[in-house]
C-alpha cells in the first residue's frame, strides 16, 4: 500500500511554467481542443488533462492577483465594470 501513496504524491513530469497569462491561456485552449477532438490515446489525454489543470490554476492565480491589485486601486472596493460607449 505505501506504493499507492507514493504514486499519488509523485509529481507529473516537470513541464516549464508558462511565461505569462497569455501563453498559458493559448496552451490551455490548444489542450482543450485536442482533448475534445477525441483523437488522443488515453495516456496522452490524461497527461493533457493534468497539464490543463496546472495551466488553469496558473491562469486563475494571475487573474486573482490582478483583481487584488484593482481592489487596492479602488480603495478596497471591487467596482463593477461599466463600458463607456
From TrEMBL:
GO molecular function, one term: exodeoxyribonuclease VII activity
Residue spans of biased composition, Polar residues class: 1-12
Source organism superkingdom: Bacteria
Reaction catalysed by this enzyme: Exonucleolytic cleavage in either 5'- to 3'- or 3'- to 5'-direction to yield nucleoside 5'-phosphates
InterPro entries referenced in this protein's UniProt entry, alphabetically: Exonuc_VII_S, Exonuc_VII_ssu_sf
Known EC number: 3.1.11.6
Alphabetical list of Pfam families matching this protein: Exonuc_VII_S
Ranges for region Disordered: 1-20
Keywords on record: Cytoplasm, Exonuclease, Hydrolase, Nuclease
Compartment(s): Cytoplasm
Task of the protein: Bidirectionally degrades single-stranded DNA into large acid-insoluble oligonucleotides, which are then degraded further into small acid-soluble oligonucleotides.
UniProt subunit comment: Heterooligomer composed of large and small subunits.
Family in the record: Belongs to the XseB family.
Entry protein name: Exodeoxyribonuclease 7 small subunit
UniProt source species: Comamonas squillarum
